[in-house]
Amino acid sequence: MDRNALIAVVCVAGALALGAVAGGVPLNHDLWTRSSVPPPPPPFAGFGPDCQIAPVSAEHLFVAATVNQGDTVTNVQLGDETSETTLVRIVVASGSKPITVLLQSSQAVIWNFEGAVERVARAMIVPGSRNRAAVAGLPAAHVDILKLARCPVQTVPFEQLIQFRRDEILRTLFGRAPDKAAKGYSPNFITLPDLQYGGAPAGGPERTAETLGEKNLLSYFKGGFRMVDPKSLVSRAEVLTPETYPNAAGLIQLERAGAIRPPRRDEIDSFAEGLSKPFRSKLSPNYRLGVSFSYVILRDVMLPAGLNGAHLKNFLVLPGVPAPRGSVGHGCLAFMDGFKAEDRSCYGDAWESIERLKKLPDANTAQCRLLVPSANAGIEAVTIYEPKKAKHSFRSTRVASPVEIKVTRPGPVWLVLNTYEPAIWRVMAGEGTQIEGVILTGYYVSKVEGISQDTPVTQIAYENRTTRPPVDPACAPLYDYLGTSFRGGPGAMVLDRQISALTGRSIDRIHGDYALDSVEIQ
Question: Which is nearest to 54 in space by CA: 151, 130, 136, 127?
Fold first, then answer.
């Protein structure tokens, strides 16, 4: 059957029918009712059919298969320079009956036909998004990359729970249901016509991975890497050949070329020292950002595409080396020159505190003063994420849990009590200690016990933000909950900036951990 013979499509038939009406004699409007007026042609009918489908011969075996992607990375990219394209082998068994096969993928896939390919009379391809599919091993005349943009459906549901729906759609589109259909996630090969899915071999010396890139490749792409001739592909998408292979294959390529290598311990330590130094203060003099790197970059490179999610990698550019081209994806890109880091992922949990620190008003802003400690009062801060006995779940109602604070520092003391989860701060003041005031900061409202009723208590919580009295707009950021500070570094500096602006005094010391049930301030 001529593969170019198309089933008449509703939108085209409608356009032709209405064209006949439009080309006829003027009508007597009195003879027509609103409901009997023919509909207008589809808005894009003038450009030709957008649902190109053809029947499957009754003389052929008709099989249909779907995958998410293949298990083998290739050197080409189909229409998208930011991600990889994988390959699935279609192994055709010998036989006399012609085969029509329907192949569908979610991601960009190259369907590589091998074996008795002369049996394949027609390969119909339902591509992933933006026509990202290609065929190798078959003549172009035997390949249909289907155009289903305005067909009744754009993909075929292969889920077993709705098999009747799948067959109904295939029957509507191609005139018959398949003789066999199957679904898999990321196979190495699919056999025709019996649709057996198979994976790459699990063992053998050729599969021994030594470097990080090799381990990543075999971890996520069991079939490894394969070179494909771009000229051999039948595709509607643009076939790109990147300078650096995508994903882990590109890391192997760069490492073997001497452009990247794993970092040395002294390189990581040197960078961490330089990056951490601006965030050290008397409150956390030994603070160190927890940075790590997968590779150092030794010369000009183009980074591989697809380093996102589980594939992310962190790169440190050594002194005098230009910034790499391409995208680092979800990873970290840092520079030994100037101890710079350009990506949020380089700073981990410290990022939000660093950004807050940049935006906070100066601590010496007199108009923001709220409290006036006595001249000889100490300012002591306790900071946690949650009380050790806290019990909660996502969207659960929060119940405050106790944290005991024993204060034996002599003289007047102001307490700054900082937590994300609500706490009941139970203060026990030693002989010779006077609790002069308490500042509570947190996401949720907390409370304090064990102090005299005339002790001033200031509550700054995200939960009560709508009930607080208005303040000078310049001071407003200082009256918000600004995160916890138990990790020190920029978080401690943020809390100190806030308290300094509100009291005119810096915090003397910070006592903190992720979770505490008691703390002693001496």
Answer: 151
